[in-house]
Amino acid sequence: MSKLTNSRPAYILHEFDKSLFSASYFGFVPVEAPHVSEKDMEAVKDCGPEAYDKSAFLRSYVERGMANLPHPLTISYKKRDVGKRSFTHALHILGLHSALAEAILIRATLSILFERGFEHLVVEINSIGDKDSIVAYERELHQCARKMAHELTPEHKKKLKDDIFELLKLDLAENLHDHIPPSIASLSTQSREHFKEMLEYLEALGVEFRLAHKLIGNRHFNSHTAFAIRDTDNENLLSEGFRYTRLTKRFGLKKEMPAVSATIFDLHKKALSGNGEKMYKELPRPKFYLIQLGQKAKLKSLSLIELLRENHIAIYHFLGKDKIVPQLMNAESLRVPYLLIIGQKEALEETVTVRNVSTRAQETVKIADLPQFLKHIAL
After folding, report:
1. Whole-model pTM above 0.70?
2. What confidence tens digit (pLDDT) does each residue in 314-353 have?
């Protein structure tokens, strides 16, 4: 986020709403929404309308020279739904293989929804894994369809001939649905580890979640984790997210690049009170940089960022990097006066080490006390 906002390319927004402002705490930079063109639709015509926005974004990624920016890259924008008066918000993370990408998206999305007044939320989660996992799952679905062939109508069979994944959507008797295998049973070893990591992040975030075996996305370009966020008061779908790595090579990239996004649907009904939507013209200007070391620290970091966001304290961070040197170099280039350091020891003890960059003096602070400590720290 830092180098992108400091150089201020023309496509970065000069005015943005509360949702994009909230997303910025997690590193998302608000940019102009890409316009879906005929060329974009043609590039993904075999994938269906669900891929149009991803196609437009990847084209703009290439045209805007974003490939030359530090990765992982975190981007956000607000766009009008085609033919509608409503808007959606999109969050994208590029260049991050691990499940941390989905975890950041889920945490940022939950924060946006909470800010909009949604209080009772649940995360639905599933995985269809990598290409090998998807092929294996297709075989399982074909076998299942053959076993229940006598229970299927001609219309059902026609749908399954066109797309075997329609088996998950058919209006079947409950006992038949119970026999449809879940996609996670077909995951490769690598995909299983990715999904396990995702569940660890959800547990660390302390959010309510449930497995949703029918949540698979678009088999033509999605992979690995799929998630959705619902309002438990009425089960309304508020957001969904998928990996779309398999689309990236279609836009001139030499090899597939990890890409995952979340879409937050129309929030108009839960707009902030007052005379219209509050708009922002500046992103937060952090005085602190978070250094995280080790998996336990990374698991703790997202909750720490959310705690500080709730207290209106912005921090720089580079969660996609595991080693200390790139993080320290980034912090030095930003000239922040203080570092917040959380390693394995701090993660276990629920503390953060606050270090003065100039004097090297440091103090260990309980995470629960950190917001007040940072607000009153002498700068």
Report:
1. yes
2. 999 999 888 899 999 999 999 999 999 999 999 999 999 9
Give the span between the Cα atoms of 180 and 168, in whole angstroms: 8
Number of residues that this document lists for the chain:
379
Residue 354 and residue 339 in contact, taking contact as beta carbons nearer than 8 Å: yes
If you search the block for the tokens 């995360």, which residue do you land on?
123
Give the count of alpha carbons within 13 A of 36, CB side only. 17
Q: Name every residue whose Cβ is closer than 8 Å to that of residue 211 and which is 6 or more positions away in sequence.
A: 124, 125, 126, 182, 184
Separation CA 170–CA 159 (nearest Å): 9
**Pair of tokens at residue 316:** 């720089």
Distance of alpha carbon 205 from alpha carbon 197, whole angstroms: 12
Interatomic CA distance for residues 263 and 61, integer angstroms: 18
Q: Report which of 374, 363, 290, 302 is spatially closest to residue 328, judged by C-alpha positions.
A: 290
346-353 long-range Cβ contacts below 8 angstroms, 24+ apart: 346/297, 346/300, 347/294, 347/296, 347/297, 347/299, 347/300, 348/296, 352/304
Tokens (6 digits) for 220: 């033509």
Q: Give the separation between CA 370 and CA 163, rounded to whole angstroms.
A: 52
The pLDDT tens digits of the residues spanning 48-82 come to: 999 999 999 999 999 999 999 989 999 999 997 76
What's the CA gap between 155 and 346, in Å, rounded?
Answer: 59
DSSP-derived 3-state class of residue 257: coil
**For the chain, where are the alpha helices, taking DSSP H only?**
2-7, 18-24, 38-43, 52-63, 100-115, 131-147, 154-162, 174-177, 189-205, 295-310, 324-334, 344-349, 370-375
